[in-house]
Write a structure and sequence with these properties.
By secondary structure, the protein is α/β, with parallel strands linked by helices. 41% of the residues lie in helices and 10% in strands. The protein has helices at 8-16, 41-52, 108-120, 137-153, 159-170, 176-183, 185-199, 208-215, and strands spanning 32-35, 60-63, 83-88, 97-101, 124-127.
């Protein structure tokens, strides 16, 4: 609204549709429940246990996790056939993509309902046939970021020139290093570490260049700088 992209009436109407609270009984009666807490398995399992105390049997339960497939968490959900990843691509306010990712435990009806829900709120859902680390968009994105870091670490190109090349040749709104600073280098490192943990694929093992910056507390924009000085 402050940027002139939304009028005050529409803003007030949107806020009126949101009811914040910390009481898990609020999920009772909901048809679709989506968890979006920290990327920590124990934290998520605790949240699912509390959700399932109150959720209707007919409700589908989604995790918005971009790194943890539902099969790693299904033991914490009653009736796991209703459980899947419903991943909103970040920033969800601006990005249309929602990845619907079934695990081997997920019922067909739950996938259909997740897709229908995403369409009902104006998003563009894509359905994966099965789980894979990073799903589709982040798998491509973070492997590309990792490759860019390998090129810089190997002395083939500078950070600045690599961002310029990717922006102009591939049409990215910002290059991989500006994007990494925006996401947070500690977050990028954690995503790559989790990929290596889940897949064993050496491509995911974070490069020394990234690990060194994180160890020195240069985490990106949130810490005053990472590959670049914070804007």
């Amino acid at each position: 609204m402050e940027k002139g992209k939304l009028d005050a009436g529409a803003c007030d109407a949107a806020l009126a549709r949101v009811t914040p609270g910390s009481d898990f009984s609020a999920v009772a009666g909901a048809a679709t429940i989506i968890e979006s807490v920290a990327e920590d398995r124990d934290v998520k399992r605790e949240v699912y246990a509390r959700i399932c105390e109150h959720a209707d049997d007919a409700a589908i339960i989604g995790t918005n996790s971009s790194t943890l497939p539902s099969s790693l968490l299904m033991d914490a959900v009653t009736r796991p056939e209703r459980f899947l990843n419903i991943h909103f691509f970040n920033p969800a306010l601006l990005m249309a993509l929602v990845e619907a990712v079934p695990g081997p435990h997920t019922a067909e009806n739950a996938i259909i309902r997740a897709m229908d829900f995403a369409r009902s709120i104006g998003k563009t859902p894509v359905r994966l046939a099965r789980e894979e680390y990073g799903f589709i968009a982040n798998r491509i994105l973070f492997i590309a970021i990792q490759e860019a870091m390998h090129l810089v670490q190997g002395g083939y190109i500078s950070v600045e020139e690599c961002d310029l090349a990717v922006h102009n040749a591939l049409g990215w709104p910002m290059g991989p290093f500006h994007l990494s600073d925006l996401v947070g280098l500690d977050v990028v490192e954690a995503i790559l570490d989790e990929g290596f943990r889940q897949t064993g694929d050496q491509r995911w093992d974070p490069v020394a260049l990234l690990r060194d910056l994180v160890a020195r507390g240069r985490l990106g924009n949130k810490s005053g700088g990472g590959f670049f000085s914070a804007p």
